[in-house]
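re: the backbone from monday

yeah here it is again, tokenized this time
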């Protein structure tokens, strides 16, 4: 995860062995065997694509575009001496940057990031979000400009008219558009109507789309990340929302830990008292990068001398557009003309309400996430140990007033603070 390092990276977002949030339930049939087969095939496909994309001028246009965007977004000039210092100090970059290094070299990159055939949507996806570039909605925090280019690994062509759906939590770890005991104030119904840090953009002729957003904060049990869904073949309704098409990818993208540390030192990120989960300790990062060349991290550059000036992040993503994972795209709520409406069938934490006072919630640590109603008075969850630990904290606190008992079964001690 190296700032401005233009090395090859393969993104593999394997689903099911971890959950995106406490309460997320995304079991996967994507086995280790199929993971290796997909990775090998996709790597060969992208290796074949690189030459064609260079000949067609796609990579050159991408480099020029990103350089122009960088100049537009940054508030004042970022000298190459500063860039070299950042690149070669904490990130151990192999890129040799000098004052004469052209921007086209800094911002060019082969299309070698692979979006896996199936990833994790998490419990807080909201259907019906607006198509818009600026999703910041006045949220405080470090400005983040994201630039993504999508390549079809089957045809080696940029994917035009793909709709890039993104969402992330705010500076203090709260998602808009949902009401859940595991997302900020679970009693705040007004959060259903909020849309901050959510939106959709359509890719252009070169498969490019971008957003102005706010750098995500953190919450317990997860590293800092951005959620991604890719829609292909969708149509735009009169109300500026999507309908139809299919979903070839669901996943998450991450940031360099050094960058996160800089952001977290600023206000309002530093008001969050929840312990930070670093990339090295995040189970989703581990699954995506274990035994592979996977690197699901944004390349980035700072837009000024201070982190508060903002961050420009970019990534090139390969997609198998023939894949479809619509059934995995479970949603917590839908944004309507009258505001947000909770999906009662989702697993975003709302199902806790069906457990009566005096009932029991059982949390069971396993690699497969699931949820079921065992009896009318008993709810059973299974998820990763990290997620179970966070759920135990939240539920023991929130449900104690209703005399609901929370039991946890997991290997080793569980730190509940309860």
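seq for it, each position gets an aa:
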């Amino acid at each position: 995860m190296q700032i401005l390092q233009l090395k090859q990276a393969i993104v593999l977002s394997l689903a099911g062995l971890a959950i995106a949030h406490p309460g997320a339930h995304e079991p996967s049939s994507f086995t280790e065997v199929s993971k290796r087969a997909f990775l090998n095939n996709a790597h060969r496909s992208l290796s074949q694509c690189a030459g064609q994309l260079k000949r067609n001028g796609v990579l050159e246009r991408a480099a020029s575009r990103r350089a122009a965007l960088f100049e537009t977004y940054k508030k004042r000039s970022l000298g190459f001496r500063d860039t070299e210092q950042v690149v070669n100090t904490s990130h151990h970059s192999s890129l040799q940057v000098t004052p004469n290094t052209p921007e086209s070299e800094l911002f060019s990159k082969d299309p070698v990031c692979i979006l896996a055939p199936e990833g994790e949507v998490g419990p807080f996806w909201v259907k019906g979000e607006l198509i818009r570039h600026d999703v910041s909605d006045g949220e405080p925090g470090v400005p983040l400009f994201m630039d993504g280019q999508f390549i079809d690994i089957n045809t080696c062509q940029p994917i035009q008219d793909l709709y890039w759906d993104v969402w992330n939590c705010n500076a203090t770890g709260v998602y808009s558009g949902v009401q859940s005991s595991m997302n900020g104030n679970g009693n705040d119904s007004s959060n259903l109507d909020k849309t901050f840090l959510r939106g959709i953009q359509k890719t252009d002729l070169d498969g490019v789309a971008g957003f102005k957003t706010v750098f995500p904060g953190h919450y317990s049990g997860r590293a800092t990340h951005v959620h991604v869904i890719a829609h292909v073949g969708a149509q735009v309704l009169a109300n500026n929302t999507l309908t139809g098409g299919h979903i070839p990818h669901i996943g998450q993208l991450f940031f360099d830990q050094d960058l996160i540390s800089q952001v977290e030192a600023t206000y309002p990120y530093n008001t969050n008292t929840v312990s930070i989960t670093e990339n090295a300790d995040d189970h989703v990062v581990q699954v995506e990068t274990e035994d592979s060349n996977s690197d699901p991290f944004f390349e980035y550059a700072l837009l000024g001398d201070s982190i508060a000036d903002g961050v420009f992040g970019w990534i090139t993503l390969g997609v198998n557009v023939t894949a479809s994972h619509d059934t995995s795209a479970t949603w917590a709520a839908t944004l309507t003309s009258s505001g947000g409406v909770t999906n009662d069938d989702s697993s975003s934490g709302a199902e806790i309400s069906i457990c009566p006072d005096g009932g029991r919630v059982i949390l069971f640590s396993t690699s497969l996430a699931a949820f079921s109603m065992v009896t009318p008075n008993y709810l059973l969850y299974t998820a990763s140990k990290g997620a179970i630990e966070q759920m135990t904290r939240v539920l023991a606190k929130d449900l104690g007033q209703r005399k609901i008992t929370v039991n946890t079964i997991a290997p080793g001690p569980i730190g509940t603070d309860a």
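The longest strand covers residues 143-152. Residues 32-55 form the longest helix (24 residues).
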